[in-house]
Specification:
about 0% strand
């Protein structure tokens, strides 16, 4: 019985830590994750307005600006000019987990996010 309590406590602790990590993501990350979740080949005009606000927001990080700009430029895939910038974010140890996830999804994007990518994006969009 004690063994079950210990396992249950560990599982609950990990779940709370994961929730706290996602809760720490910025509004910019949540907005971009939501846009990516519903992306169909390119961002809508409404999406582009939201992304422009992120690019102009002085409180958004440089990485968030880069991802927002790349997402605005998507036409079925990320343009070649944006790929090195996104790859640098994915490799950057100082970049937030959410921004890294967004950048990696964009790098793999082919028309729409894959089912696996959507699973990664859903918690970020909350």
């Amino acid at each position: 019985m004690k063994y079950r309590v210990v396992i249950l406590s560990a599982v609950l602790s990990l779940g709370l830590a994961a929730s706290a990590a996602h809760a720490a993501e910025s509004q910019a990350v949540r907005t971009m994750a939501g846009i990516l979740l519903h992306l169909q080949h390119f961002a809508t005009d409404t999406d582009k307005q939201s992304l422009k606000q992120i690019v102009q927001d002085s409180s958004a990080t440089p990485d968030e600006h880069t991802v927002a700009e790349a997402l605005m430029d998507v036409k079925h895939t990320v343009p070649a000019a944006d790929r090195p910038k996104l790859a640098a974010i994915v490799k950057d140890d100082k970049a937030s987990a959410g921004v890294k996830t967004l950048a990696s999804v964009l790098l793999e994007l082919k028309h729409v996010p894959s089912a696996g990518d959507k699973e990664k994006l859903e918690p970020l969009a909350k």
